[in-house]
Fold this protein.
Amino acid sequence: MRFVLALLAAFVLSVSPATADALTRALNRAIALFDAAAPQMGEAFGVDPRQYRDALVMGKFERGGQTISLYYEEKTDPAGHCGRFAAYTMLPPRDGVVRLVVCPRFFSPGADALRTLTVLHELVHAVTDANECRAMAYAARIQQRATGAFTPVDAYWQANNCAASAFSLP
Ligand SMILES: [Zn+2]
């Protein structure tokens, strides 16, 4: 798990040292949760567990013979997506790169659980698509399988009409 710290420098390209530090810690927690949950995850919700882990740990993954890299970027566009999200993922990948934008809200004091959940959630987008229900269902399942509990996301679930989707919370 520790080696992520060294690797991160290779794929975080446009963030300040403080951001890189918070991201590294959130990524390390997310990896620990995923590895604890992995034996029970299978191909849940259509997410390829190897692509997911590669994206999480190495910042890149293989799909259809192509390597797709993650590019973490710090933004402060309160009038844009950062007004609503802690982070967001820009899809589809362009020229083999998926950009993950980290917003100021990501750095709220004491929001370790939010940061970890955000990373788990955004990484689902990075390796699949923009489906919010899939991303939240998969992130919640990782938390639940790893720790026996998951962050309540009822408001989010309702706002995205996920009850009518093919996905479900634990
Ligand atoms: Zn999302």
